[in-house]
Amino acid sequence: MRYEKGDIKVRPLKDEDAEFLYNWLNDPRILEYYEGRDKPFTHEMVEEAFYNDDKEKVACIVQYKGEKVGYLQYYPLDDETKLRYGYTNLDEFIYGTDQFIGDSRYWNKGVGTLMIKAMVEYFMLEKGLHRLVMDPMTWNRRAIRCYEKCGYSKARILPQNELHEGEWHDCWLMEYIPD
Questions:
Q1: What is the pLDDT of residue 101?
Q2: Cβ contact 69:19 at 8 Å
Q3: Mean pLDDT of the chain
Q4: For residue range 28-59, what is the model confidence (pLDDT) as tens digits?
Q5: Which DSSP string corresponds to 141-155?
Q6: What is the extent of the structural domain holding 167?
Q7: Nearest CA among 153, 150, 151, 148 for reference residue 173
Q8: Of 132 and 178, which is predicted with more confidence?
Q9: What is the CATH number of the domain that holds 75?
Q10: How many domains is the chain built from?
Q11: Which has fewest Cβ within 10 Å: 71, 72, 98, 156?
Q12: Is the pLDDT of residue 127 over 80?
């Protein structure tokens, strides 16, 4: 994915981005929402999680005004995940996304909203998808508000969907469906 909209630029992950990922994923403020404070990343974990041979997952860095500020990945949902999420039309093109603003100096400044809006525009214009989905934990109100501002809606609760800091948490299945 290469996409620019205003001050946001999304581009494929490069080798030189590994140190940013490592730093972000060792910051307790970031880990509170992504992966968990009990799981700080080693360099090897960054390599394994973000630089693997998964052909379906596309890993990207998000820049704001030229600064690396976050991470975004997207992937087509497989049939098993579609069914687990409650989708019965397996012919639909549905992509899932995961993302975070890794530089907390850019939190609460609208950067996440700009990132999500740019991503939605890219997928609707370039990919012609039926819907986009994500699954934030129900207690992550800031992320949920951001996604709702960008046109996502809460579809259903996914019970005990994510292991975070030693406990299973419910998540919202949120979806963006083009008009």
A1: 97
A2: no
A3: 95
A4: 999 999 999 999 999 999 999 999 888 899 99
A5: HHHHHHHHHTT-EEE
A6: 3-176
A7: 153
A8: 132
A9: 3.40.630.30
A10: 1
A11: 156
A12: no
HSE value, Cβ hemisphere, 13 Å, CA-based, for 136: 20
Q: For the chain, count helices (H), then strands (E).
A: 6, 8
CA terminus-to-terminus distance, the chain: 23
Q: 39: part of which helix (H) or strand (E)?
A: none
Confidence at 63, pLDDT banded by 50, 70, 90: very high
Place of tokens 């993302």: 99
Q: What angle do CA 144, 149, 153 make, to 5 degrees?
A: 60
In the predicted structure, residue 128 carries a pLDDT above the cut 80: no
Strand order in the sheet with 94-101: 3-5, 8-12, 58-64, 67-76, 94-101, 131-134, 167-176, 153-164
Give the Cα separation of 125 and 44 in Å (integer).
36
2 with 12: CB under 8 angstroms? Answer: yes
CB 94 within 8 A of CB 77: yes
Tokens standing for 19? 């140190």
- Token look-up 């994500």 returns 134
Q: Are 60 and 23 in contact (CB under 8 A)?
A: no
Q: What is the pTM for the complete model shown?
A: 0.93
Query: Can you tell me whether residue 111 is helix, strand or coil?
Result: helix
What CA–CA distance (Å, rounded) separates 163 from 38? Answer: 11
Whether the CA torsion 45, 48, 50, 56 is positive or negative: it is negative
